[in-house]
Amino acid sequence: MEEGTLKLPTHCAGTEDDYDVLQWDTREDCEVRQILDRVADKWSLLVIALLDRRSLRFTELRRAIDGVSQRMLTVTLRQLERDGLVSRTVHPVVPPRVDYALTPLGRTLHATIQSLVHWTQTHQREIATARAAYDARTV
Fold first, then answer.
1. Exposure of 13 by Cβ count < 10 A (0-12 exposed, 13-18 middle, 19+ buried)?
2. Dist CA 134 CA 139 (whole Å)
3. Please, which pLDDT band fits residue 9 given cuts at 50, 70 and 90?
4. DSSP class per residue in 69-99
5. For 74-127, how does the pLDDT look when each residue is reduced to its tens digit (9 = 90+)?
6. Cα–Cα distances in angstroms (integers) from residue 30 to residues 25, 84, 85, 87, 108, in the given order
7. In what side-by-side order are the strands of the sheet with 86-91?
8. CA-to-CA distance for 64 and 46, rounded, in angstroms?
9. Using one digit for the tens of pLDDT, what is the confidence trace for 36-77?
10. DSSP line for 100-130
11. Burial, 32: exposed, middle or buried (Cβ in 10 Å; 0-12, 13-18, 19+)?
12. Which residues, at least 6 apart from 70, have a Cβ–Cβ distance to it below 8 Å?
């Protein structure tokens, strides 16, 4: 192993001084890109946002997320559960009831998502103006 590198797959750079975004694509032992792909996925973002206030059942999530298929929601919830961001609670009743909730780790991610949404709201006019200018140049 190279000097200054850690074995932990979650730490891709030896020090903060050698930070390089391209390492996410080139280092086999780095999971940063996989995690970013997961949490930045549109369905994951919506699930995390919806679970901020309370736990929800699968059908409640599906009704609240416009355009998500049952299969895609199932896959998304399983991935978020696997990553420790969402917990799944099965209640022993008939018919079975399953609730999904954010874990403490998931709640910390929600704060980050809120910051991103706030940034988007703050800069949406600037982005719309830039898009219009770009579209006018490319026509």
1. middle
2. 9
3. very low
4. -HHHHHHHHHHHHHTTSEEEEEE--SS-EEE
5. 999 999 999 999 999 999 999 889 999 999 999 999 888 888 888 999 999 999
6. 8, 18, 19, 25, 21
7. 56-57, 97-102, 86-91
8. 9
9. 888 888 999 999 999 998 999 999 999 999 999 999 999 999
10. EEE-HHHHHHHHHHHHHHHHHHHHHHHHHHH
11. middle
12. 62
CA angle (105 as vertex; 24, 45 as ends), nearest 5 = 65
Q: What is the dihedral of CA 74, 77, 82, 86, to 10 degrees?
A: -160
Which two tokens mark 55?
A: 């736990």
> Which tokens belong to 71?
């299969």
Q: Is 110 exposed, middle or buried (0-12, 13-18, 19+ CB in 10 A)?
A: middle
What secondary structure letter does DSSP report for 45?
H
User: What is each CA distance from 22 to 6, 8, 41, 119, in whole angstroms?
Assistant: 18, 18, 20, 25
